[in-house]
Amino acid sequence: MSTVVPPLPYRVVDSRAETGDTRSIELVPAGEGLAPFSPGQFAMIYAFGVGDVPVSVSSLRGGHGGLVHTVRAVGAVSTALYRLRPGDTVGLSGPYGTGWDLGAAAGHDVLVIAGGIGLAPLRPVVHAVLDRRDAYGRLAVLAGARTPADLLYRDEIGSWRDAARAEVTVDRPGPGWRGAVGVVTTLLDHLDLRPGRTRALVCGPEVMMRHTARDLVARGLAPHHVQVSLERNMRCATGHCGHCQLGPLLLCRDGPVVGYDRVAHLLLVREL
Amino acid sequence: MTADADVNAARPPGPDGLVMGKDGLAALVDVLIRRGFTVVGPTARDGAIVLAELTSADELPYGWGVELEAGRYRLRERSDGAAFAHAAGPQSWKSFLHPSRVREWSADRVEGELVLTADRGTPPRYAFLGVRPCDLRAIAVQDRVLTGGAYRDPGYEGRRSGALLIVVECTEPGATCFCASMGTGPAAGPGHDLVMTEVADARGHRFWVRSGSREGAEILAELPTRPADAETRETARAGVTAAADRMGRSMPEADLRELMAGTLDAPRWDDVAGRCLTCGNCTMVCPTCFCTTTEDVTDLTGDHAERWRLWDSCFDLDFSNLHGGPVRASARSRYRQWMTHKLGTWYDQFGSSGCVGCGRCIVWCPVGIDITEEAAALHDWTRPERPDPEPS
Q1: Count of domains in chain B?
Q2: What is the average pLDDT value for chain B, to the nearest integer?
Q3: Are A122 and A210 in contact (CB under 8 A)?
Q4: Same domain, A109 and A37
Q5: Residue A240 C-alpha, separation from nearest chain B C-alpha, in angstroms
Q6: Prediction pTM value
């Protein structure tokens, strides 16, 4: 065969606003579907005539049984995806990349730390742990955002508190905000962390992941017990376009989820 | 078919191979065309040796050599009439196997439905005539990148799987060549269908030919050849051995992968950034550079869209663009990305060096940046004290 397989058509069955510039879209196959996704893996979502972007799956179980992706409108493609409404169709390919290593977290305390839209790729982790609550130790979710209006999944986070510790913090509080203020790592000060028993999963802006991972290691976590989900420009997701390099890694293939032990030294090199 | 050919068909060539003259080259192109191949080989055009579709061996660049230096490429007439006495030209075989512009699929909006259609084209069956050993390795390198992983590039695979590779060993290296120090030439490595060594001396213009595959042997059997005489074999071998000693450049004798990983903060990157125009020429002419981007186009109706894949360059600012801007904004970081990838992290990603020592990036750099010189400077930087130069 010498033809590139195009993406598969998926229909938008739900689109809900999460913040001012972010929506979650739920997709179901219009015909044949893709192989099942794991938490942390991503899809390339094609907006007709505009292009495609990599987006991590933000829920494996939408209200209509479809895949949910949470998209922030920052470029031409993501803006086109943001504008999708039920009935519209996109092209979807995947699943791509490594997922979160939940197997390694089984039997341990699970610490989920997210910054901004970084909570989206981690939400399926929370779902997976809540689904098999007995298989894990304590579950803590620490989420940071710029302002209260930028916090994702606020209602859902509330529902997690029955079975997990879930804390949020913002950089710039608005009127009426009575929660924590400051970067997400400040929430660690109030956590009864058991470093030897904890497996941490971190996603957010790269600078936030760098500080968070370093902080966790300083608090006694082994670097390979800290997983981070990294981001680079991606054009193909199949290891052929060369865009997603981070030193020796091709993040579409070797990532996006990698152990901090593999990338700590790379994240210290400017413009790598 | 000649009587000679019948004899050869009955007795396959042994390791000693066969010898043919210029008429053999002419017959080779004819046989390839008759077998349905699109024959691509070197020809002199527009002041350079370019790769183009050949309809006859007459189009080969008989009597043309090249003069190469950093930032400089000139054709030079030769008196011996040799067809392959030239080092790498501005193109490489990736122009055919991994073309600069490919349509991958189309999308149509039909009554509100999105219909995605694969681009079904049958690739031509290429015969590449005159592949240099460095470029043979470059093809193997791209094979690993584009078809050696979990995902295979089906377009590349389709073009590559049918391609016949006819290698001509290198006897005339250029001043910018360093294949010997990369271990990729001037003798041919594995993976060819036929390999030739050209000899043009007082005893005549001839080619020592050996087959590397069954198909190569079948084609060779159709050519006017004679058993290889010892004198031709020895002259051919001596020419290749001498070429190894006449390389104009060499890489420093160091573990280049370690050198790249250990010099990410070297001041030399600032130095080269002061010269580099970030034009991307080196990536376009490099026979292994494989990076691509995508382009989505729509027609005037707005109901038909196409996905195209185009060569891209890590020197382009957009290459590393993330929502906040480019990850690699400085020229320093972009040159460093290209060179450390080529010589270092390529091993991590694809299990080999990304450099085959063809020297194209040196020749076609408008300001003459020389990858071997940059590697040597980085190597010097890692050594606390330079050894005293040996007395000459």
Answers
A1: 2
A2: 94
A3: no
A4: no
A5: 6
A6: 0.94
Contact B236, B208 (CB under 8 A): yes
- Cβ proximity of B202 and B7 under 8 Å: no
Alpha-carbon torsion B134, B139, B144, B146, what sign? Answer: positive
pLDDT digits (tens, 9 = 90+) for B23-60: 999 999 999 999 999 999 999 999 999 999 999 999 99
Q: Does A3 reach chain B within 8 Å, measured CB to CB?
A: yes
Is residue B2 predicted with pLDDT exceeding 50? no
Peptide bond into A95 cis (omega under 30): yes
User: What is the pLDDT at residue B14?
Assistant: 59
| Alpha carbon distance A231, B171 (integer Å) | 47
Taking the CA of residue B43 and the nearest CA in chain A, the distance in Å comes to: 29
The reply to whether A79 and A117 lie within a common domain is no
| CATH number reported for the structural domain that contains residue A224 in this entry | 3.40.50.80
| Phi, psi of B146, rounded to the nearest 5 degrees | -95, -20
Same domain? A142 vs A71:
no
Token pair for B345: 């992290």
Chain B: residue whose CA lies nearest to A94: B151
Q: Is residue B1 included in any domain, yes or no?
A: no
Q: What is the DSSP string of A223-267?
A: GGGEEEE-----S-SSS-S-TTEETTEEHHHH-BEEEHHHHHHHH
Q: Tell me what ipTM this predicted complex has.
A: 0.94
Which residues does chain B have within 8 Å of residue A236's beta carbon, measured at their own beta carbons? 292, 294
Domain end, chosen from A96, A127, A154, is at: A96
Q: Is A270 part of a structural domain of the chain? A: no
pLDDT greater than 90 at residue B392 = no
* Residues A113 and A195 placed together within one structural domain of the fold: yes
Domain that holds residue A167: 102-263
